[in-house]
Fold each of these.
Amino acid sequence: MSTPTVYDVAEQAGVSIATVSRVYRTPDTVRPETRERVLTAARDLGYVPSGSARGLASRSTGVLGLCFPDYTDPETENAAGDDDDAQVLYADQVIRGMERAARREGYALLISASLRGGPSDLLGRMAGQVDGFAMMARTAEAADLEVYAKRLPVVVLAGPPENERLDHIEVANFDGQRELTRHLVEAHGLTRLAFVGGPADSPDAEARFHGYRAACRDAGLPVPDEPDVRRGLTRQDGREAVKRLAFRPGGLPRGMLFANDQMAVGGMEELAANGVRVPQDVAVTGFDGIPLGRMVRPSLTTVRQPMRRLGGLAVDLLIRRLTDRDRPPESILLPVSLALRASCGCVEA
């Protein structure tokens, strides 16, 4: 079967080739219904913008890509005078690891964190400019990834593998949260716990919740079907979660486990604003191990995941795939470790 061209897409979508080009280059200039028709035709045909095909054939772009949802905390963007180093998020650490590894291999790194125009637009723009790319899980539909993976290497980061034909890296989210929950129960004697989860479509947050459930089951504690509160993944979401938990019958729990560090820091800020002491009144934990967790007071107990190593391995897998397109796909599970600090009642070494 011949490789589909822009002409094939234009014919199937009933538009001009100029319109197809604008969909990928300047999507905001195309009406949404027309843009969706073009993207659907491209997906059905298996079309990838020609720039990526040329780059893949010649290895001439010298660029690798990283795509991820824009999880920027609004407070981080708008706060004036904050120390930038204190605002390093999970994605920033992955980027650092990937950028260093790419530079070592002689590649530049192209980063796209905007979903304006939708995931298909994000993929289209990225694919036309890189030799291969890594993508955070659930950033785009599996069907879209399948199309692009036929033409250039794709590595999926985080979450369980959704496509066995793609290279994939994740961290031990379930194991880490289970061990952290066990620590609160066994080392600190806490049994009245609450888990603050992330969005239901976040595979990492869900894996952490299931690790929490497993630890509760092992300890003979009630096993919840859902997190006590579901929020986004920002500091403001952590604050809002604390407000909701405070109004539950019985008031605040004795221990609050947040699905990520950003929420946990926001939760501690809200507790402090209301005179609740951490950890004397409520123990607080997070997950990720971002630098901000070491800087807050009390310092945040968390599960430390190897974020920079995750980015570096993504580059390694892309390079291997560029060298040998027919090799079997790899799925890598990275271990995590507990960082026991003051927010749970531990004394740091």
Amino acid sequence: MLNISAARRRNRATTELNIAPLIDMVFILLIFFLVNTSFTKETGIDVNRPTAATAAVKNKATILIAIDSANRVFMDHREIDPRAVRANVERALAENPEGAVVVVADKASSTGAAIQVMDGCRIAGAQQVSLAASVPQGE
């Protein structure tokens, strides 16, 4: 007697799904997006920076310190005591000795708070300490 189901199984071509090209494409897309992604550092708060006609773009700001309108100091998305700026900058400079410090002060913050933070950065050993400003609109 002829077994029909066994004959069908023998005659049926096995279909294979080759996913190697799909995996290759996923890895290529992953590499593409990683290479083209810009990783920007943020201070952790929104600051209304003052404008300056002579403001220049600084691409290699590695240590960002923010001062908000209430003179609170922020570094690495957390609030720090203004007296602890020196210790935090020393720790950041130990990780990256050639790091530049940029103080991002709000328009409404006091000059004394900015000076205190900049002074702490210089005492910590930072060679390049800058104050952030925005370029005026229309220029």
Amino acid sequence: MNHSTPSILTPYDIKNLTLRNRLAVAPMTRVSATQTGVVTDTMARYYERFAEGGFGLVITEGIYTDQRFSQGYPFQPGLTDAEQTLAWRTITDRVHAQETAIFAQLMHAGALSQGNRFTQQTAAPSATRPKGEQMRFYYGEGKYPVPTAMTDENIADAIAGFAQAAKRSVLDAGFDGVEIHGANGYLLDQFLTDYTNHRNDRWGGNTQQRIGLILEVIKAVRETLGAVPVGVRISQGKVNDFGHKWSNGEHDAEVIFGSLKDAGVDYIHVTEYEVWQPAFLSSTESLVALARRHAPGVVLIANGGLHDEEHFDAVRADGADILAIGKAALANPDYPNRLATRRPLVAFDASILGPIANIKESELAM
């Protein structure tokens, strides 16, 4: 066992919550709810397996937050009404029975929505067609439509949706905390990104202004939840623009991470393709290291390319407190238990995510 492993498998606190170790399941969209956004027993078993396998924390797939523009995909789960909310209780109870914590990731798809049962329109900071094409494994096809530029009322509704979903998630569904999805090209990241946000009001302009919507959502969620852990996921790359980098490099990192710290988040979830790599061509520091420098004292979760132990030490040395694992967790839902007993890992088989990235019965048999 290398020298990093014992600390990874020791307990760790996020605010008032003690995790049994520092390994988390990363959020992964699996489009396996009902057409009306209600979670299923298949999903309950899917999440329960990670808890049985020893993970200290499970972060759910993105959950849509309102009955207007937030839904991103067909068969995506929601937290917008009583039926959706109470169905999640089955999952949180089964995860808690294994002494694992579970956070709800709250997501508004914005311009990247490719399946919303409440509307045929998409909404974004500006009427700019997203780059790339819709993802086929989430039932998409062809180019993204040109979104409608959001009005002040639309923005207020989106903020309220996050706050209301957060309240439902903790008070009614039994989640231990919430993660605000500010990454990967979805709505909050669209406001943060210069080429998708051309507004000339309070929500547009320089980086400090463009991060404003994320900060307002954090404020609204924090006011709703009080002492419950609240985090935010941040990335440069997007599902439709994989190689994107912040145009002002380290200056943007300083503004973004410093603003998140000042907003009072309990953790920042940094995700990159290979999270240990330098964040910018002009820098030797990773995005995790920059987050640690500009958000001292805030818990950092790192995600991206952590398929095995090879890069654990580097990411921990850069300042990560918790490591979030995606594909390796799909292949090894008992990853922490395997790590503890030094059993070999199963290689990830990409076929389980095709042709549609829903949960397969073969996964549940692992």
Amino acid sequence: MKKYSFLLLYLILVSCENDDYILLNDEIDNTSFSKAPSGPTGLDKQILDDLENISGGVGVSFFILPESNQYSNIPQDPLNPITPEKVALGKLLFHETATGGNPTTPSNLFTYSCASCHHAAAGFGAGIRQGIGEAGIGFGTNGEGRVFNPNIPTVDADIQPIRSPTVLNVAYQDIMLWNGQFGGSGTNLGTEANWTNIPENFIGFEGVEVQAIKGQGVHRLLVDDSFVTSFGYKQMFDDAFPNSAMSERYSTTNAALAIAAYERTILPNQSPWQQWLNGNYSLLSNNEKKGAKAFFGKGKCYQCHTGPALNDKNFYAFGMGDFDNTSEAFVLDQSGFENVKKGRGGFTKVTTDDYKFKTPTLYNLIDNGVYGHGGTFTSVREVIEYKIEGVPENTEVPTENLAEQFGDIKLNKTEIDNLVLFIENSLRDPNLSRYVPLTINSGNCFPNNDSASRIDLGCD
């Protein structure tokens, strides 16, 4: 009897072990064989303490980006709530080269798009010092091969007078452009006297929406009834804007609202740093963690680069150079460029704002390849060393306007190395292609559709 009891007990134990084994394998399948996150090390704990202090006790959640489909957690314009239908439409319109329907030179028809200067390959920047819409040719690998078409009159070119900022994390900005002139709420309240030719500010739209509206005119894009019908976008507009009157539904404004809704979802939430914040501590090397310590400590980066997007809504002068001090750049409107050079002050007309520019996000910087509002730097390291040295490139900047951190940062070479590693590696989302459509309704090549770009992009 004892023999049979022992055998029964053995079978039960084996059965339990097999059940556990099956459960374990089910769990592995559900996690795609990902390695279970390890707990925080001593260095991790130091960073966590730093984040706790910097955020006023909020902790890591203060720095975490939401998932791109968690619309309720993404900052949005109350006048333009994010919906799946708007995002789907905006994703296509943003990349659609058939929106390039109002060129100055007819041969440039349907050759450019929003994404010509803001494409995923360059971290949603341009990948060159001055973004080129109309009259640009070529693409290269990440946009670095786009150049001005010498056969087009210079005055007909759409060349940016300042480096094209990334679209990443625009949800965390209530005003847009380096000088912040677009946006009729929040930060821009009190600047109404300077809203000349920006009627959308008076409506109360936030900056992302205003830029999407104004940008279509400035960059010679055209979305109207003819475009919607010709390129098969009617149903998508109907789905995205069912409450708009038919007479207003297929409009520049609604196109802009869809583009803005899409732009707000472009979040680098798959970067190693974001995954570290969510508890996957093994995804950063020890040197990257030391770089994070420098970022949130001695490097003083956090004083301007904070929150989920690592950018505040303030403006600072670091004396960086402009396009007009080099023969390698185009300055098409010298009189207007004087305001561009003055940054926030060029918009507000307040002298203490002169030469101050909006804090950029730091995600996917390495993909863009040019840095500073004037594109005068070619590496992250150059920018860090420039800020440490504290000698302004632009001698026009009044000393009293320079940021207090300029020249007041003390890091040794090893700390700089680690800081560069953190910014270049930890803050880089490797999968931004998820925000790019496989095709666009027109069937055109994108983000550019000129003959040289079609070859570079493999469209021919």
